[in-house]
Amino acid sequence: MNNLQEKLVDWRRDFHQYPETGFLEMRTASIVASILDGLGYHLQMGKEVMSEQDCMGKPSEEETSSHYEWAKENGANSEFLSHFSEGYTGIVATLDSGKEGPVIAYRVDMDALDILESDALEHFPQKEGFASKITGKMHACGHDSHTAMGLGLATLLAENKAELKGKVKLIFQPAEEGTRGAKSMVAANVVNDVDYFIAIHIGVGVPHKQFVAANSGFLATSKLDISFRGTASHAGGKPEEGRNALSAAATSVLSLHGIPRHSHGATRVNVGQLEAGSGRNIIADRAKMKIETRGETSSINDYVKGQVESIISGAATMYQVDYNIETVGEGLSCKCSLDLAEVLHQCATSSSEFEKSVLEDNTPAGSEDATYFMEAVQKNGGQATYCVFGTELAAGHHNERFDINEESLLPAVKVLYDTAQKLMEK
């Protein structure tokens, strides 16, 4: 096990140095595929496991092509890189025992964030020499750790294949940030045959050496890109001939934050980005906004999203400009299957490396697109849960100083492996 701990740390630190954002995880995916292939897994990659029309917020062809060239020059595995050249970077690795038994799926995510990592000398990745090598991008949410944990689990399963029953599917998902990647993999039917589905996360406020087997507290969400198109004009000479897109956007911002809250559950709305205009003496003919909505349930989120659309339409009418709303990410609400969570809970409770295991904690948090997988499995009669492995955090998620305690990795892998064994005994 000491050797596996070293591998987990090495994998995590390598991925941390080369963070790749959603649908651009080409270097990461090529290395993951190479390792899984060496372990004897059957691989499905790229468009085999992702529906093109269900990819939300995918980068442009130009950005995708440019990143492919970057990946070639920065350590990607040349044997597998071509499978991901168009930005469809998902992987499903299947280990078939050849014996009758359940189909168990584990999902881990691979993408990073557009955050400039701290260069403070006391920042552990900086101190130990594995900080991000890409300016403005970093693993600030633990997905480098998740990918390493997925490979660690793959290693244990492959080494003990003779003891297994049924099949195990390891799903390496792109573009979790922005809730963009899961929907396309579900639409490609990758979990249609799954009896048990487990999604994982590290941290999220759970203390080191503690574990939560079921977290249903993630809010449904929609990520919206909104654009206004008006008419430019000289602000001093002919202001009446202009149609002010900036004014429409500004009016929208104030109104959006005034959306009535819903009596049946929590709601959120945030305008995170606003860009407009081209000069101080020009009536702004263009404006762009990036916003998100969240709701305690999918129906409540739909209510907030509907309010947003009404506000945008009204502001556009008021200022006589055109508008467009594009959904670039979405996540559902979903409840964990407690029978499955109980198995995870028992495995963590039996482990000497966990001081506390909690069956269920539904404290509202952010949003997660693993709910697409969960809902699909449950609709087919299967069970699904979202579990959280606690760790020490240097700073909160999505922070420039984010870092985990790497001693959390191996105990998490062991619990996931023990869970597979228990489910196969059923």
From TrEMBL:
Domain Peptidase M20 dimerisation: 225-313
Coiled-coil zones: none
Superkingdom of the organism of origin: Bacteria
Gene3D superfamilies found in the cross-reference section: Zn peptidases
Any Pfam family the entry gives: M20_dimer
TM stretches of this protein: none
Protein name according to UniProt: Amidohydrolase
